[in-house]
Amino acid sequence: MTLQVELVSAEAKVWSGTARMVIARTSEGEIGVLTGHEPTLALLAPGKVTIRGEDGSTVVAEVEDGGFLSIDHDRVTVVADTAALADSAV
Amino acid sequence: MAGQQRVYRARIRSTASLEKIFRAMELIASSRISKARQSVASSTPYARAISRAVSAVATYSDVDHILTTEKESVRRAAVLVITADRGMAGAYSSNALKASEQLRERLEDEGKQVATYVTGRKGVGFLRFRKRDIAAEWTGFSDAPKYEDARTIGDTLVDAFLQDYEDGGVDEIHIVYTRFVSMVTQQPEIVRLLPLEVVEGTEPPAPDELLPLYAFEPNPAEVLDALLPKYVNSRIYNALLQSSASELASRQRAMKSASDNAKELIRTYTRLANQARQAEITQEISEIVGGADALAS
């Protein structure tokens, strides 16, 4: 089981793929999403969203303006007005 | 008689240079149009994600939000018209403006005051010429709008909506934009933006796919509070993108027929010029022959 992740900004789809885990910062605090997470709609705080891919690769995205995160049926959608992939994977 | 020929030649030259301009503008428009359609397509995932989220909140919580509540009496309505920055696009801008004028009349007949918001220099010029009050105007991005532009417009409109009538606020907001149906059809369209009627996105989810029972973080009211303005912005962004694609499509079409007409004119003038030249030669010959006859007799 893996997560289907989509990272969407207002102007384009920034990234999509499968992942093992998604780490993001919501308005309430850090959230780590694994498969089987309960359906959630959360507001994001500006900051980094880290996507750990299936094959161990890591994608880091910079979410500037408040966006939101929706999780349902192992589909994670990260939505932000402006989002960009950070240059180097950590 | 040589004068006649010169006039035709000059006309041919000027028409030929106009034709070059039309042709260049047609090519520019058609190269940009695919880009504009692409940005419509690439903004859909965002629009879909937002509509999905908004309808999820609206369905699973009975939170009332000021942006979705109908006001009891509508006294002032705002109309946002989206037009082009530049002309040479056939009837594109005037069709949008015509639709907005009809809407304005209808609203005024219903006894509402109308505040006009406009994007695009053509619309601004139209309203200025008629000495209308413009509540706000935005120009400079009609053929390639950015999300930033939509956000600026959205923030202004939402602010106006949240204000009380007495402070100059509006009670409902309409948008007039041009929907891009196909390369040959663009339809001016009027939609009511606020108060929001939350509709499922353009592609409704499959019937067997139920919206899950979401947990909201921090709570439904705050999530809705953050989402709705974004939803409004994304609707505006979509309208801007559709309009820009329509603008480019009508410009391409207008320029195509302009350069066709220019070609036709050049052909006509060339014939006329040839005729004038021939007439001149004939006349010279008959003068010479007449002169020779006179001498011989």
UniProtKB/TrEMBL annotation, chain A:
Keyword vocabulary terms for this entry: ATP synthesis, Cell membrane, CF(1), Hydrogen ion transport, Ion transport, Membrane, Transport
CDD domains named among the record's database cross-references: F1-ATPase_delta (cd12152)
Cell membrane is among the record's keywords: yes
Location in the cell: Cell membrane
Name by which UniProt lists this protein: ATP synthase epsilon chain
Subunit: F-type ATPases have 2 components, CF(1) - the catalytic core - and CF(0) - the membrane proton channel. CF(1) has five subunits: alpha(3), beta(3), gamma(1), delta(1), epsilon(1). CF(0) has three main subunits: a, b and c.
Coiled coil regions, renumbered to chain: none
Alphabetized Pfam families for the sequence: ATP-synt_DE_N
Topology class, membrane: Peripheral membrane protein
Cited HAMAP family: ATP_synth_epsil_bac
Annotated ATP synthase F1 complex delta/epsilon subunit N-terminal domain residues: 3-83
Protein family according to the UniProt entry: Belongs to the ATPase epsilon chain family.
Organism per entry: Kineosporia mesophila
Cross-referenced InterPro entries: ATP_synth_F1_dsu/esu (IPR001469), ATP_synth_F1_dsu/esu_N (IPR020546), ATPsynth_dsu/esu_N (IPR036771)
Main location: membrane
Function as written in the Swiss-Prot or TrEMBL entry: Produces ATP from ADP in the presence of a proton gradient across the membrane.
Automatic annotation (TrEMBL), chain B:
Compartments in which it is found: Cell membrane; Membrane
Domain of life of the native organism: Bacteria
UniProt key word RNA-binding: no
Statement: the UniProt record of this protein carries the keyword Disulfide bond: no
Pfam families noted in UniProt: ATP-synt
Membrane-related topology note: Peripheral membrane protein
Principal location listed in the UniProt entry: membrane
InterPro entries reported in the protein's UniProt record: ATP_synth_F1_ATPase_gsu, ATP_synth_F1_gsu, ATP_synth_F1_gsu_CS
Keywords recorded for this protein, A-Z: ATP synthesis, Cell membrane, CF(1), Coiled coil, Hydrogen ion transport, Ion transport, Membrane, Transport
Coiled coil: 255-282
NCBIfam families, per database record: ATPsyn_F1gamma, PRK05621.1-2
Record function comment: Produces ATP from ADP in the presence of a proton gradient across the membrane. The gamma chain is believed to be important in regulating ATPase activity and the flow of protons through the CF(0) complex.
Assembly notes: F-type ATPases have 2 components, CF(1) - the catalytic core - and CF(0) - the membrane proton channel. CF(1) has five subunits: alpha(3), beta(3), gamma(1), delta(1), epsilon(1). CF(0) has three main subunits: a, b and c.
PANTHER family listed in its UniProt record: ATP SYNTHASE GAMMA CHAIN, ATP SYNTHASE SUBUNIT GAMMA, MITOCHONDRIAL
Family from the record: Belongs to the ATPase gamma chain family.
Protein name, per record: ATP synthase gamma chain
Protein's organism: Kineosporia mesophila
Lineage: Bacteria, Bacillati, Actinomycetota, Actinomycetes, Kineosporiales
